[in-house]
């Protein structure tokens, strides 16, 4: 039982293409393809055509890389193969009916207990009394995110009361938030993967970064449009060369990034290994987080 992808060797539309198949069932294939952000229109009877740029993310998400002959052999053995002759004779399988991923969801991580901070940072507010949660959500929306998902954990019920009431702002509680940032990231990406309509990208931000300005958000989001395929985008803000947040993760990378996340390092190791684009933002902010205790909500 496996989803397989072969080498990208077939030229079309100015790039090379590979095939994504299942050796078990079309249901397995469709589920994997949708989670990876492969458009429904890419399905052709027994396989998905996928561009070369997407192949590494598919492998990281669990697809097994094989040669073209091996892929064909296992597809034939599965009974799922539709031959070219059968296609000419009109044998077709209906394409899955799901909308293509589009837009960006801001993923605001605010689940930690804030041990060094003196309390959950989700409860913090500035000297004027405005909650950090409100400020970060506003920055994400003003910077171009279509919607925002706030990930809560420690004292979630109290923090939920501070989340702006908005039809485009939702909350998810990370069950294992005490394991660190990685647990919050996994919970957020899992929730996004199940959300309808599907988002093409997630912009991950932290609640304890007071310098999260809309201009920073817009600059990192621009990395999505420059790729030509938002679901394949992978970028992060840097400040004088120091990696920071926000981080842009295309849908094709969600499964792999979540699986690679550990402790408080989040998706950092995966971003480095997958060659995330670095977007310098030092002219807009210093990117620092806050660990000294401010005023917390009562």
From TrEMBL:
<keyword id="KW-0548">Nucleotidyltransferase</keyword>
<feature type="domain" description="DUF4031">
    <location>
        <begin position="3"/>
        <end position="77"/>
    </location>
</feature>
<protein>
    <submittedName>
        <fullName>CTP:molybdopterin cytidylyltransferase MocA</fullName>
    </submittedName>
</protein>
<feature type="domain" description="MobA-like NTP transferase">
    <location>
        <begin position="106"/>
        <end position="273"/>
    </location>
</feature>
<dbReference type="Pfam" id="PF13223">
    <property type="entry name" value="DUF4031"/>
</dbReference>
<dbReference type="GO" id="GO:0016779">
    <property type="term" value="F:nucleotidyltransferase activity"/>
</dbReference>
<dbReference type="Pfam" id="PF12804">
    <property type="entry name" value="NTP_transf_3"/>
</dbReference>
<dbReference type="InterPro" id="IPR025877">
    <property type="entry name" value="MobA-like_NTP_Trfase"/>
</dbReference>
<dbReference type="InterPro" id="IPR025109">
    <property type="entry name" value="DUF4031"/>
</dbReference>
<keyword id="KW-0808">Transferase</keyword>
<dbReference type="InterPro" id="IPR029044">
    <property type="entry name" value="Nucleotide-diphossugar_trans"/>
</dbReference>
């Amino acid at each position: 039982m496996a989803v397989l992808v072969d080498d990208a060797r077939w030229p079309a539309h100015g790039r090379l293409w590979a095939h994504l198949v299942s050796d078990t069932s079309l249901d397995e294939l469709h589920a994997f393809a949708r989670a990876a952000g492969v458009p429904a229109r890419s399905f052709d009877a027994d396989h998905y055509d996928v561009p070369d740029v997407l192949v590494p993310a598919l492998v990281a998400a669990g697809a097994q890389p094989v040669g073209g002959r091996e892929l064909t052999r296992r597809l034939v053995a599965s009974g799922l193969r539709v031959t070219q002759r059968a296609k000419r004779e009109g044998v077709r399988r209906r394409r899955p009916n799901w909308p293509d991923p589009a837009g960006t969801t801001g993923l605001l991580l605010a689940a930690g207990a804030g041990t060094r901070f003196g309390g959950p940072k989700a409860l913090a507010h500035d000297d004027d009394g405005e909650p950090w949660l409100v400020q970060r959500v506003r920055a994400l929306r003003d910077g171009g995110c279509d919607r925002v998902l706030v990930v809560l954990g420690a004292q979630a019920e109290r923090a939920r009361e501070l989340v702006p009431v908005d039809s485009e702002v939702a909350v998810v509680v990370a069950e294992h938030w005490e394991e660190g940032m990685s647990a919050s990231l996994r919970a957020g990406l899992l929730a996004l993967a199940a959300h309808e309509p599907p988002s093409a990208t997630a912009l991950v931000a932290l609640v304890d970064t007071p310098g999260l300005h809309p201009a920073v958000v817009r600059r990192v989001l621009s990395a999505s449009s420059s790729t030509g395929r938002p679901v394949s985008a992978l970028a992060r803000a840097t400040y004088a060369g120091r990696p920071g947040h926000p981080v842009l993760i295309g849908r094709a990378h969600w499964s792999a990034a979540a699986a690679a996340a550990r402790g408080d390092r989040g998706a950092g190791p995966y971003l480095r290994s997958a060659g995330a684009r670095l977007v310098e933002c030092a002219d807009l902010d210093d990117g620092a987080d806050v660990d000294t205790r401010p005023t917390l909500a009562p």
